[in-house]
Amino acid sequence: MATTAELFEEPFVADEYIERLVWRTPGGGSRGGPEAFDPKRLLEEFVNHIQELQIMDERIQRKVEKLEQQCQKEAKEFAKKVQELQKSNQVAFQHFQELDEHISYVATKVCHLGDQLEGVNTPRQRAVEAQKLMKYFNEFLDGELKSDVFTNSEKIKEAADIIQKLHLIAQELPFDRFSEVKSKIASKYHDLECQLIQEFTSAQRRGEISRMREVAAVLLHFKGYSHCVDVYIKQCQEGAYLRNDIFEDAAILCQRVNKQVGDIFSNPETVLAKLIQNVFEIKLQSFVKDQLEECRKSDAEQYLKNLYDIYTRTTHLSSKLMEFNLGTDKQTFLSKLIKSIFLSYLENYIEVETGYLKSRSAMILQRYYDSKNHQKRSIGTGGIQDLKERIRQRTNLPLGPSIDTHGETFLSQEVVVNLLQETKHAFERCHRLSDPSDLPRNAFRIFTILVEFLCIEHIDYALETGLAGIPSSDSRNANLYFLDVVQQANTIFHLFDKQFNDHLMPLISSSPKLSECLQKKKEIIEQMEMKLDTGIDRTLNCMIGQMKHILAAEQKKTDFKPEDENNVLIQYTNACVKVCAYVRKQVEKIKNSMDGKNVDTVLMELGVRFHRLIYEHLQQYSYSCMGGMLAICDVAEYRKCAKDFKIPLVLQLFDTLHALCNLLVVAPDNLKQVCSGEQLANLDKNILHSFVQLRADYRSARLARHFS
User: Fold this and answer.
1) How far apart are CA 530 and CA 393, in angstroms?
2) What is the pLDDT of residues 305-332, one digit of tens each?
3) Residue ranges of the Exocyst complex component Sec10 N-terminal domain (predicted)?
């Protein structure tokens, strides 16, 4: 059986169990094993093993039945024991209920007895207290205080309690009969009050918080309690302002007091609020007055800087104090304190700000013009100036004498930065110092000053001066500086627009002033763009005029009709070289002076006018065969120059012009074929005819017959 038990392994698998049994049995191996396979012996082993398993099963079954019987017996005994415990628990619970009812009954009796005792004892205590008060009152009547409570300084707390009650009683007595005793009680009341305040003061100097708390609790019922708080506040500030920064000192003082005031007074939030009020109305107000009054009338710039700095630091201090418990509406409380200090300064703040900004802006501009030794000329206003402006816009004619600016644009980025910087500071001060209801209106006033001095007095004046400095289109060797004005005005206006968005918009974004500011900005932009357009148009006319002078001076009739047709050595004429050099220079200048689509627009206009000039110029000459080839070379060079414009329309115009010049050299028999080509097919026949007429051999019968 022991051998059988060894064959059982956890977990039990029947196949593995049979395998282990076979390998243990002699002759149970395979035929190739060390022992020959013996099926009879294996069968015999299986039969014997089955019998052993049956015996084992019976034995285990008997053991299981025995354990089940034992378990059932123990379960019955346990159930019986549980029933007995339940009965015992019910009995105990009943006893507990009886005991609880008895305790409740006794407690009720005790409470009733206590009420009865209290009903008897309270009047008795009151009577005893009244008797004591009458005894003390008699001492005041006799004029001699004999009780130990009044003579012993250690019992000042008890004396204070008694005298406070006597003082209340004395107030109810008629004055004519008890005037003397009332005055004695009042005198003693005052003396004790002074002693308590003195004791509180001494305890505060010694740093005895517990003693301060006791005395403050006694003084709470006295009229002089507020004086006790005042003494506390006064002594708290002794030695508190040792640094140069009064705001930092005040913040540290309030933090220190906030930590201890709750351990001393029963109403700490009131005491702390009174301390803060004292700091604001005495210390800060005095500091503000010292810092502002001196420079209020003499130095507006310093006054505004000091006002902004002090107000900012005061509001920052107020934000720190918001962390403390100051009562229900601490936001309103602190706002009123700040307003009480700065009201007289904030009422007329915007008048000072705008006055200073105007004078400062005017000084910056005047200093700039003085550095240029320039006396600003008056730009007329009113009906005559408006009439001139309308005539100039419609006719593009210069009205009045041309002014030689010697290349000076009268625009300064340094001046602009200074003006914008001053205005930026003004916007920052306006945001901080203006009442929220007045903020949009005040910001608009500052914006109008910026427009007046930057846009009108500086940019617009420079544009007017630049327009007056543009020479007439027939001037020779004219210096064209207006494009420099355009470049600088463009840069300046970007800076102006950035300040408008960064500093003005946040102040007016939610007010009706937003639309007013946008409209004013739009008007200024349109006014300046109109003058810029006029100046650019007149500058382009001057450029074309310069090209005309070059062509007139350099182009000779013999260029396109040489005397010796076989001895032409040049690739293109001298006039073409100089015109192309001039055009390239002006194109580069235009690209450097403008940005975005403005470059393409101006270059396209210049290119169209350039093409018209060359077209009309070529119409003035008669061309031999070799002269026509030279004209084609010139136009090819002009076309190469036109590529620098990078404008498709301009290049297309010169391509067509180049194709037209081919009519000057093509054989008469091929004229019709060339005219019907891709580039010339859509042109008017009169244009084609006008170019054919320029040929020196046009009058020959053969050519006229072919073109008819």
Assistant:
1) 8
2) 999 999 999 999 999 888 888 777 788 8
3) 39-147
